[in-house]
Design goal:
Layout: H1 3-15, H2 20-27, H3 31-43, E1 56-57, H4 59-69, E2 73-78, H5 86-90, H6 92-110, E3 116-119, H7 123-131, E4 139-142, H8 155-167, E5 171-172, H9 183-190, H10 193-199, E6 207-214, H11 221-225, H12 228-236, E7 239-243, E8 246-249, H13 268-272, E9 276-280, H14 287-296, E10 301-305, H15 306-313, H16 324-332
Parallel strand pairs: 2-10, 3-4, 3-6, 4-5, 6-9, 9-10
Antiparallel strand pairs: 1-2, 6-7, 7-8
Helix pairs in contact: 1-3, 2-3, 4-15, 6-7, 7-8, 14-15
Length: 335
């Protein structure tokens, strides 16, 4: 092999974006020889291809997940295929980042002009807001109040604004805390004009993305916001997962409690009424929580990581959508 010729051909193809036909004409060789020289340049490391994005979509796993749980949309992000990505696959923030990035692409693919999108304040949804670059014109509504002290600059508010800007639509943020000390304070805040306007959009939401969190410290924002006696009470009732401020047990039922009266958020009944509800979940301890929420029948789509997907598919028997009778029983527990 002529290494200098291979390097010259590779430079024109990869750096100058010249076609194989143009390169063949310049060097008076066939375009087939150009192709062989390009292959040889890679094989002999004259050209080194470095893919800097550590994640890729696992299509077979995505398809298997959709079929197993009867989902309209399933996207599985694999952070483990490339050598050296073990650290990224184990880092919760990295997992959330790439799940959010995949969800942003999914949302761009399925959103239509005139849709009303709902976003909660979970970490993957925050990452979605950072990754989204294009959307048809649509409104974007925040599904739950903020968990941090800075209402104006909270990441959830920023995600709603960025997502709306991607399509040139209007943003409806919630400048209010998620959890209030008592029901009367929460009711007073809900009556404020700006907050009431956002709450009034809940019934119009056509597509929504929500994070799925395990009911554990540092994973569930609701868990961390409650007192220890309140956490203990929820654990005694089988708390397993949290979605948009609502707690679910392992069977997929909403755990009853007095929390709803103190929160600024979309109700579980309203969540169930969203035509397209896409769950975002990932990380070492997310499989059990995700399975519980899948059992609830709420989700029409799921974006997750490969490890979680394999754990979900490893069950002894298929977990299909919740039967109508079970859905009716769950609905009875909703506020």
């Amino acid at each position: 092999m002529d290494r200098l010729l291979a390097a010259s051909v590779a430079r024109r193809f990869y750096l100058e974006n010249r076609s194989k036909v143009d390169i063949a004409r310049e060097f008076d060789i066939s375009r087939f020889k150009v192709a062989r020289l390009l292959d040889a340049a890679v094989a002999h490391e004259i050209v080194r291809i470095d893919i800097t994005v550590p994640a890729e979509i696992d299509v077979p796993l995505s398809r298997a997940l959709a079929e197993r749980f009867r989902l309209r949309h399933a996207v599985v992000v694999d952070l483990t295929r490339s050598e050296g990505n073990a650290a990224a696959a184990a880092d919760p923030r990295q997992v959330s980042r790439w799940i959010g990035t995949a969800a942003a692409q999914l949302l761009a693919d399925i959103t239509q002009e005139g849709d009303v999108l709902g976003l909660d304040g979970s970490r993957p949804v925050e990452a979605l807001g950072e990754a989204v670059t294009r959307l048809p014109s649509c409104e974007v509504v925040q599904l739950s109040g903020v968990h941090g002290p800075d209402l104006a600059h909270d990441a959830a508010v920023a995600a709603v604004r960025r997502t709306a800007a991607a399509g040139g639509g209007r943003a409806f943020p919630l400048y209010a805390p998620f959890l209030l000390p008592d029901a009367s304070t929460a009711a007073l805040l809900r009556s404020q004009p700006a907050i009431a306007e956002t709450l009034g959009r809940f019934g119009r939401i056509t597509k929504a993305c929500v994070g799925i969190s395990a009911w554990e410290a540092s994973l569930s924002a609701v868990h961390d916001a409650l007192t220890e006696p309140e956490r203990t009470a929820y654990r005694a009732l089988g708390a397993c997962a949290e979605v948009a401020g609502h707690v679910f047990d392992g069977a997929g039922s909403v755990v009853p409690g007095a929390l709803d009266a103190r929160t600024i958020a979309m109700s579980a009944a309203q969540l169930r009424g969203v035509p397209e509800l896409i769950g975002l979940a990932g990380g070492a301890r997310s499989a059990e929580a995700t399975r519980a929420v899948l059992k609830s029948g709420l989700l029409t789509g799921l974006v997750t990581d490969a490890t979680t997907a394999r754990r979900l598919l490893r069950a002894d028997r298929p977990d299909h959508a919740t039967p109508p009778a079970a859905v009716a029983r769950v609905a009875e527990t909703l506020p």
